[in-house]
Here is the input.
Amino acid sequence: MKLDLDTLVLRSGPHTSPSDGVSLMEAVSDFAGEPWSNSPSCTSPVIAAYARSLNDWLPDDERQRLKAYIPRLVGTAEPDLELRRAFACADAAVRVFAPLAFTAAGLVEEAAKLGALAPVDRESAESARSAAESAESAARSAASLSAWSTAESMRSAAESARSAARSASSAARSAESAQAAASSAARAAAESAARAAAFGPLDRLIAAAS
Here is the structure.
């Protein structure tokens, strides 16, 4: 029996069956006619990693905006695009979420430097890592707990990008790490700004082929 997307209420976390609750990726598996799963084969592993984290991080009311993505996530499993999408996740962690967190912590200059970085890709991953380490030092000097947590997240994101450059087979794992970093930074940022920014990376991941 297919889920009714009009009445569906998305919930956080994995579920054993629709009666237990439905997350975004579980809804995608049902929509695509696949076995019930939080990791349907029809969806890019990189996109699914970001989508799962976003589904679990958003509050209940804003999580419902993800219902519009259910049909869009079907058919996105394209192995040739996974490395590109992994870098896109790392880019969001370093240049979007981390600057929000630094701004919230009062480290405006460090936020501006990260926001001005070139997009994180194979060529720029090393410079992104260096910038993250510099921001980490600034956060340590400022003795700001939220900024320190963010700096750790940024360094993880930059390392994930560099790891992704080493091998396309590590792309999905890199995306998981980068998204975990993005989520950590987002939680430290001003919540409303972080939530507003969170949907943009998902749109860009889906449109990576364009």
User: Anything to note?
Assistant: The first helix runs from residue 24 to 31. Confidence is low (pLDDT under 50) at residues 164-169. The two ends are 34 Å apart (CA to CA). The CA atoms of residues 79 and 160 lie 18 Å apart.
